[in-house]
Amino acid sequence: MIGIAVASIEFRGVVKRYADSAPTLPGLDLHIRDGEFMVLVGPSGCGKSTTLRMIAGLESVTAGELWIGDRLVNDLPPRDRDVAMVFQNYALYPHMTVFENMAFGLRVRKQPEREIRTRVEAAAETLGLVELLARKPGQLSGGQCQRVALGRAMVRDPQVFLFDEPLSNLDAELRVQMRASIGRLHREFGTTSVYVTHDQVEAMTLGSRIAILNGGELMQVGTPMELYSDPDNVFVAGFMGSPPMNILPVSNLGHALENRLLQLPRQGLERFGAELLLGLRPETLCPAAEAPAHWVRFSAPVEMVETLGAEMLVHLGEGDERLVARLPGLRSLTPGESLSLAFDPAALYLFDAGTRQRLREPRAVVAPESELVTP
Amino acid sequence: MRQILTQNQSAAGALESPRWRRLKSVLRDVFSWRFALLVFASLVVIYPLLWVVSLAFSGQQSLQLVQDTRDLGLWGQLAALVPLPEQWSLQNFRAVLTEQPFMRWLLNSVVVAAGTTVIGLVLSCTAAYAFSRFRFPGRNRGLMLFLVSQMFPAVLMLIPLYVIVVQWLGLGNSWLGLILVYAITALPFCVWMLKGYFDTLPFEIEESALLEGASRLTIFYRIILPLARPAIAVTGLFSFMTAWNEFILASIFMDDEALYTVPVGLRFFVSDYSSEWGYFAAGSILVSVPVILLFLALQRFLVSGLSAGAVKG
Question: Could you tell me if B140 lies within 8 Å of chain A, comparing CB atoms?
Fold first, then answer.
């Protein structure tokens, strides 16, 4: 039914500015490859929806170049861009039936009625909407509405699919189902897709690659695992992963890192500044008694415990030195109790406290005798 | 003893049955002061109307109430207050429809009111859509100006309108002149009403249609207008009634008796030289029929349309 039509999307120094205010996007360079599922993620107001709407042609480009395939689309109206969009609030036409909703775009483009019927019925079949074709959106549940919106985008066989937080209005269970459906459809048809969300789980599970935006700036682009395991800055480190990476301020003594919680001998610190940030994933922490001998050990008072069944999130420390550990949920802990933990020194991340950028150091520079010295 | 108790229980049960409870609640409502107030207010409104109906169907030209009833005694005087004709007759209606040029006036009114509604709706829908969706220089001032124009008494505009329509445009004594005046004077209210409703329609619906390849005009006709039916119904009804009931402008602009609208025509039943109240009453009832039918046809839109406009307008 639906052929594979793919196109790359390229932002070349794209600027977006509203009236006299500061630019929402000060200059975006981003390449979305043919057939890729790119997820734009970031906090509210980071410019991700603006970026998506610029691809759709619903927002103008203030400066720079936006390419879809081999066409410069800066001044191309939305209807000529061959893109389809799924909106957060479905944006179905309430006075039309499901069939008419899905057929609207084809009818506007004066496709033969027989062709329209074939395409709509095929899309309805794929999405399980056959029984609902005669109903109006008011008679459908949220999940069904979103499937109709998806079907309406599919029947046109566009070069690019755009998704603007399509699952935000659905309940948790339905969201998981729809997420799986969207992923399956992308694998099946391979259409270039751009998906905006603020939910990092959606980003991690759906995206071929993820672009993280903050304040209009592109923080990092990469596969979900690249962003998780190799973040470029504190923002990305804190954004990917749940709970987020622990960031602890530490002083650089040249031969060791130190704060009130721990002292960590380390080589090769001379080229970095005096104040650093140390990043530790909650899942890299484990009880000291179960850790290999060369792992770094430290103790901290338990502040709060969140029990999740098979595992628990333990909030530790005080003042600026607070962190969360994800531990097996088999033991009981009481607030105030001192807990000894350990981590692999190779698993920590260092960031500059001023620029908040990652400080990459050659691996395996940890002193062999390194061990925790609790002040 | 037990039997007595059972009987008492069943009697109490019968008294507390759902039907009895409903009856009690209805009786409580009927004897409340609110009910009394509403009945009184309704009577104040309905009583004169009942006299009009009574007079129209009496076949006479004057009210029994205004005749001298001093010799009738108390019961006779009270009976005279009841708006019922002494005899029922359709004579007044027959006379109005056949002996007077009433049908001609009715045709004039229908043409003028329908024309006003169509032109008013076309102008106000397009203007309201532009005010709701586009940002252009003078948008806010234009909206404010519409509002300010509603604050002046309509009579103030009589002379300027006469000069413009009759003297400059030469549209006195014509349907078109009256249609233009009515459509344009109703425009500010209609634009505000419709703009309020358009504002409530999600932008995403239009954006979605834009992406699907629809032009602005297609979106306006195939998506916005069908969705705005409640507001359009209310606005249309308002335009229609403005034109249908208007008297002053019509009496000034129309000199030719053949071009009178019904309200102007009715005036001649009761003038310095004649007082045919029966014809007047029958004519008034005939005039009300189309408006009542329109209300009935559009009533399902009225509540949602009025409230939608009220909230956002």
Answer: no
Interchain proximity B202–A109, CB inside 8 Å: no
d(CA A347, CA A225): 15
Tell me if A287 sits within 8 A of A274, measured CB to CB.
no
Name the domain boundary from B66, B92, B118: B92
B34 and B100 both lie in a single domain: no
Supply A278's token pair. Answer: 């140390």
Is B207 in the A-facing interface, judged by CB distances under 8 Å? yes
- Residue numbers in A near B211 (CB within 8 A): 56-58, 78-79, 81, 83-85, 105
- From the centroid of its chain, how far is CA B79? 33
State the pTM of this model. Answer: 0.78
Residues from chain B contacting residue A85 (CB–CB below 8 Å): 207-208, 211
Q: How many domains are there within chain B? A: 2
Q: Do B211 and A91 touch (CB under 8 A)?
A: no
- Name the residue facing B212 among A57, A89, A105 (closest C-beta): A105
CB A189 within 8 A of CB A35: no
- List domains and CATH numbers for chain A: 9-229 (3.40.50.300), 243-352 (2.40.50.140)
For the four alpha carbons of A118, A124, A130 and A135, in that order, the dihedral sign comes to: negative
Do A156 and B205 lie within an 8 Å CB cutoff?
no
**Minimal C-alpha gap between A192 and chain B (Å):** 16
Chain A residues within an 8 Å CB radius of B214: 79, 104-105, 108
Structure tokens belonging to residue A186: 């992308």
Q: How far B175 CA sits from the closest chain A CA (Å)?
A: 37
Same domain? For B35 and B67 the reply is yes
Which residues does B176 contact at the CB level (< 8 Å), separation at least 6?
A: B115
Among residues B92, B122, B147, the one where a domain terminates is: B92
Asked if residue B181 and residue B267 are part of one domain, the reply reads: yes
Same domain, B224 and B109: yes
Same domain, B48 and B136: no
Provide the residue-wise pLDDT of chain A in tens; the chain has 375 residues: 344 445 899 999 999 998 878 888 899 999 999 999 999 999 888 999 999 999 999 999 999 999 999 899 999 999 999 999 999 888 999 999 999 999 999 999 999 999 999 999 999 998 889 999 999 999 998 889 999 999 999 998 899 999 999 998 888 888 888 899 899 889 988 899 999 998 888 999 999 999 999 988 999 999 999 999 999 999 999 888 888 999 999 998 888 888 888 888 887 788 888 899 999 999 999 998 888 988 888 899 999 999 888 889 999 988 778 899 999 886 788 888 899 999 998 888 999 999 999 988 655 444 444 444 443
Residues B284, B169: one domain? yes
Same domain, B20 and B137: no
Alpha-carbon gap, residue A166 to A158, rounded angstroms? 18
Structural domain for B71, as ranges: 2-92
